[in-house]
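Entry 0007
Protein: Aldehyde dehydrogenase (NAD+)
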Amino acid sequence: MTIDDLTRLDSTRIFVNGAWVAPSGGEALPVEDPSTGRIIGRIGRGGLADVDAAVEAAAAALEGEWGRLTATERGRILMRMSALVTARAEDLAMIETLDVGKPLNQSRRDSVALARYLEFYAGAADKLTGTTIPYQEGFTAYTLREPHGVCGIIIPWNYPMQILGRAVAAALAAGNAVVLKPAEDASLSSLVFASIAAEAGLPAGALNVVTGLGAEVGAALAGHRGVQHLSFTGSVATGMRIQEAAARNVVPVTLELGGKSPHIVFDDADLDLAMPVLVGACMQNAGQTCSAASRVLVQRGVYEEVRRRMAEIYRGLVVGPACDSHDLGPIVSRRQRQSVQGFIDLGRRELTLAAEGTLHPEAPPEGHYVLPTLFSEVPPDHALAREEIFGPVQVLMAFEDEAEALRLANGTDYGLVAGVWTRDGARQLRMARKLHSGQVFINNYGAGGGVELPFGGVGRSGHGREKGFEALYGFTRVKTVTVHHG
Ligand code: ADP
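Output (structure tokens):
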């Protein structure tokens, strides 16, 4: 797949009721390659009428062929989708790299993850069961797990394939119908995914994809009376709007809103194991990862060594065009680049710069590049220690003991992921219990990896859990049945 192939893709249509249709307004939005600043294609600008049609198609699918399938049959379709994603993994990876600016080696991992989500939920579809409940004499009581119905899924631009995979595969496995709204900066892989779903035999209307702007398609979907569940991954500000819209229709909502996740490195940590992970867990996807380990808290005894070794790694990091798989690609858009650079400039004015990476000499000047930047001795109340930057920026802070480590780690509004590096088993268990976080990684940092592992946050990182079996519970509701038989 080359840029020329991509521009020939007719990506201006949206996918509604199993068909590719022109958006009602007839307008299109440009698709930019963040590595070069070039416009490489167009996507359709959907609107209210398109969301209406998609929700209607999804509701009809639940009443029709899709709703009549058994869980096993749903699983088989998902398995075919997984095989087709695997067969087209390289195309999907290239599309993502051109659309999002993600280094190709990282996009390849995303297409593998998408296939894996489909495989996992394909196998899980017919293993989701209710329970029987011991109750009064003369009664049989049990629960049924039912799909919510029409699910609105709104995804961001940073990991489109992974995030659509974890949400759409789980929603479909549980028997829901989906209206997917990809981010305007990264819609191409969702469109290819829709064509794969059709090829795999997913009945019309079970999955609909409406591209367009957040304030138009996203807002229409979030507020739609025909939607029974909302799932959103993105910024806190937009997440709040989604939850408000959900409240007005009294529908459940799953929110995954990012974080300010810490690595906590104790004096007894295996630094050889930790060092590459400390940096990599923030640099992947140029720091545009909700679970990025953007704070590194280090116990005083090894602080100086960790600072020195991290700085050395930073000086070796190269930023460049995504197709060439450098350590880091560009930031997704001009707007995001400005925001990240603003944080870096603030840090350079007010903090101690410990190290930065380098820009590849062939990086086009129109690309949205920023240098990976490490700041040390950062006060915990500084903006760079508290706010989500969503770029390749890490802050280093020292702590004296376990109590202070916990205070710092738990001291932001977020709580998505935490990494703890120590050989002390009792401390590992204490920290895992006391950290305010949806996931804790001891002597590793999974950064949201692992399809099987429930994922989600506390505080402003959101609520609800995706991935693993927990996602299936989230995409279903329980109905209690009692039979009085005397
Ligand atoms: P960012 O500002 O980084 O693009 P957002 O959280 O705004 O992050 O975007 C994540 C997703 O939410 C995208 O698909 C975007 O189109 C969508 N979105 C943005 N604004 C709204 C909104 N008001 N209502 C619903 N969806 C929205």
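Curator remark: Residues 104-124 form the longest helix (21 residues). The chain has a mean pLDDT of 96.
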